[in-house]
Amino acid sequence: MNNKPILIVLGEPNSVFSELLFKVFKNKINKKINRPLLIIGSEKLLKAQMKALKYYLNIRKIKFSDNAKLNNKNINIIDVKYNFKKAFDKISNKSEKYINNCFKVALELLKKKQAFGLINGPISKTHFLKKKYLGITEYLSRKLNMKKEPTMLIFNPNFSVCPVTTHVPLNKVSKILTKKKIINDVVNINNFYKKKIRIKPKIAILGLNPHCESVQKISEEDNVIKPAIKNLLKNKINVNGPFSADTFFCKKNLTSYDVAVGMYHDQVLTPMKTIFNFDAINLTLGLPFIRVSPDHGINSIMLGKNKSDPRSLVCSVNFFKKIK
Question: Model pTM?
Answer without folding.
Answer: 0.88
